[in-house]
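Project standup — Tuesday

K.O.: blocked on the structure for the chain from last sprint. Re-posting the sequence here as requested.
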Amino acid sequence: MEKGYIPKDQRKKILLLSDDIRTHSGIGNMAKEIVLKTAHHYNWVNIGGAVKHPEAGKVFDISPDINNLRNITDASVKVYPSDGYGTQHLLRTIMEIEKPDALMHFTDPRYWVWLYHMENEIRQKMPMIFYTIWDDVPYPMWNREYYRSDDMHLCISKQTKNILKNVLKDHPKPDWAVQYLPHGIDENNFYPIINNFEFEIWKEKFLDKKEYDFVVLFNSRNIRRKNPSDIILSWRTFLDQLPEEKAKKCLLIMHTEVNFSHGTDLGAVVDNFCDPEIHKVKFSEHKLNIKELNYLYNCSDAHMFMTDNEGWGLGLTES
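H.V.: unblocked you, prediction finished:
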């Protein structure tokens, strides 16, 4: 029996407000990992957000999938898909149906203004927990009233914990209510690959049977704050400082959308600023499973981020 196991009918039920745990966003992936690794100890209900969620209004019991992934028999995990991160009406409805013991929300508090408008109502029934990161100065004093409305803070970084304590210095919380709880990456999923024939076959096919001396990877969304076009321009600048023959043996892999409504036409950026013989850029748009994503990381010598207003990124941690 797994350490920490609690029978299903004796577990606390946590209502998790985040990205849909079935999606591949950073928030969605880490929320999924939290649920997966604690499904033997807690029962979970996820109000799963996404932009224009195609399944909004439905409910899915994914307990059998969790059981298969964790090799257990009695997980209890439900997903209520939502456009955006939810509404007061949706939350009240789910609270009435599921009767959770605690609420935990994940990501920037400014996405949760509607939630904090009803914090008094919520906290009469259960505590509010905020799984949070904020590692940029100046101290976000504008978040103070949000932070004060939570019963507990789980801080992704030590800097987050320091910043939060400073924001709340006039309204300190007990030590147990502000804890450092970093992200974890499953080492069974992401690890250096050595002497693996299957990986070599995948790599050969992915790189079109070409060999390179230096490969850089960008793995993120094609949206403004990720600055993917700046990645491409930086790549050109870097290669222009190398002898031409060396530059030709380098490759930038862009694992992202070539063109996206919330981002940039990256194909046009490459066409206008890169010589295809010298500034080689390969786009990878298809979704990869965890095994293939680990292969992708192992194809590269370096992983490059230039994101605005993001002190932590899932791809960086995995890489």
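K.O.: great, moving the ticket to review. The chain is about 35% helix and 20% strand. The chain has a mean pLDDT of 93.
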